[in-house]
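Expect chain and fold; see below:
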Amino acid sequence: MLANTLRPSPALVGLILSTICLFMLTQVKAKQVSHQVVAISTESPPSPMIEFAQELLHRQLRQLHHHSNIHSIMLTQDSAVAKQGFIIQPQGQQLTVRASDDHGFMYALLEIKEQISFGTSLANVTANQQPHFRKRGLKFNIPLDARNPSYDDTGSSAQQNIEAVWDFDFWRHYLDKMALNRYNQLTLWNPQPFTSMLALDKYPGLALDDVYKSTAPLDSRIGAWGEAGGVSPLVLKSLQKVITFPIQDKIKFWRKVMAYAKSRGIDIYLITWSIYTNGIGGQYGIDESIDNPKTVAFFREAVKELIITYPDLKGIGITAGERMPADGEVENWSREKWLWQTYGLGLADAKVIKPNREVSFIHRFWYSGYKEIADYWGDYPDDFSFSFKYIMARLYSSSSPSHIAEKVIPTIQASARKTWWNLRNDDIFVYRWGDPEYARNFYTNIPTDITEGIHMGSDGYVWGKTNAEKFIDGSNRYEIDKHWYRFMIWGRLAYNLELSKRFFVNQLKLQFVDADAEKLYLAWQAASRIIPTVNQYQFEPGDRNFAAESVSSRETFRYVNDFQVAKSMPKSGVLNARNYVKKSLAKHDLRAFVSPFKTAKRLNRNAKLALSLAQQLDTKNANNVLQRTLDDIRAFAYLGQYYSAKISTAVWLEFYQQDKQRAKYAVNAKRQIASALKAWQQYRHTSEKHYHPQMLARVGLLDWQALEQEVMFEVTMVDKILNNPFLIPSTNDPQNQLSLDYDKTLNGESRHQRLQIFTPDAGKYRVDVYQENGVWINSYQNKENGPARWEWFQDQQQGVYYLNLQWRDLNRVIKVDWSKK
């Protein structure tokens, strides 16, 4: 009886046996897959930043089964170490990390993780680093809603990201990647974000519940969706709800995002333009008039509540202008007065309620000046800095000191304030870029003594979820993953400018374990030098005036004729085709200049190297990440060959038109334009393997097949010029139905001389541009119905021009005299 009483139940026997088996299995696995346990000690409870890096380090040790005589890592506070910097030293069986703040400790642990991933033993890990730029940020235009768009949401990328910016998993991933790449600032840009982020007691019903998109067809032409940053009736008539999201939940969402950013050592700023009332629709008497007291009262209240509602918001940034009248146009009002009455007094109101709350302030140096800013903001109590576009919209143009920034640097130096440099990438959207030496030289030339920080991003592209990929997986679902190398290059060098080529080669080895990383580094670098070379030859500072990937401005494809008279980058020494030929025929000494032939050779040299190395690295697997990367390298290279042949064609056309001995140049021009077409066809084929066409917000549709028709038209243009160089414009517009606006100034400010053609009710037209002697130099064909506007910037070429406009059955010739200033 006793034995029966003590007999365990079958269930208990099963549990015991399972436990024994699990223990034995665990012991076997421990012998097969062991790793070193490294204790990380801190003098105080670890912060979320330290915990984040600590977890990644332990994960790396587990994956590598790492062993060394180091058994602990001691984090020691040391005020002598520069903020965000760190020193790592092995001492016996311990690794000592000294830093003065949590940023330094986090970056130190990430550095240890990285070094052991490169194959360094813990016992040999050493480092002594401090930040080159104290603030290293990204610019992110947030398309909150069709009713609260970012600056220009007419592109595919913005429409694909309206839902993404309300997805916390996206932000968690994005902010983690930022921290890994040593970014510590995130600037979120939206013209009027308040109605999607606040519930104002004084303005019930104004907050926007839920999230909406527009079903209107994407159209980047001027005015099609309304002025940039605004909301048009077309958009409001075509709203579609995509997320049910009450305003109180929206507030919780952004608080959560900001708190998470803080846990990764990242400050968040909200930067706006003025004056925009998107999503308000005239309620409470609010409009976009600078002298409307109801508008002023709303913005003042919104700014106050923004600071109170979001305790983890680091700062605010503002933009004078865009939608403001020039100073003096409205009695008793100026741009700075309005900004002070709204943002300045709103911040003061918040400080009455939260006296210890510090709010960093960024004032963009745009449509304003130092004296006007200082008159109102001179006594701002917290951090106050400027923001200026370092090289306008052309981050990928030249790493030499910026001729754009040179204009404002003396003012900043005299002000005793510092500036953020806005590094605007409106050059490269599709293809993977990677040239560490370009970024290193670029940063080296930025004056650190007046620099508050840098933030990199675009106005016409949203760097969130990818939108044009044919094959999507974990490597390219988000832009920060697809373009991992580019984001890493700019972030890591902003923190540590001393990183060697070996560091980047090691990173490529980690990503592509079976590839020759040295060859990949060189191939990627060569391909990445294509766009800067093109931009130096055809330099357009504005985002909508040129996109190298599509060879287009918002108004027109940039034909070969345009490249005859291209505006070369100031202070680059680069000559366009026309100036080069003039100087050559006049026997000038050209040794101090970069000739267009030299530009073409540089493009060809980099293209040839990139293609050769890519061929050696080819995997023949169309859908793996390395192959996609190699095809992006090839796409850059073929585009470079296209531009090389196009520039060469432009030179031969100039010789043909300027030199009386024309016949000998015709063969060269025809041969080069044929080569341009062939290179474009290879560019199209390579691009279409991986990408769908997409609408680019500032410059129109990127559709390689459609654009190929324009390249083919270039061949026709060259033939016409060679066969009949002196074309006579015809005139037939008795009712004067076409209109032309020749704009030399705007709001009293000197601007580019600009030709504008408006067709209000039927947009299909063609324009041919001729010199006074009848030589055809450019043409443009608009194929869309509806209102349209064409602009032509040629302020560097003075002279008399004729524009032959063909619209419906009408022709009209307009004479434009640009010889008069």
Observations:
- Confidence is low (pLDDT under 50) at residues 1-34, 740-753.
- The longest strand covers residues 749-759.
- The two ends are 118 Å apart (CA to CA).
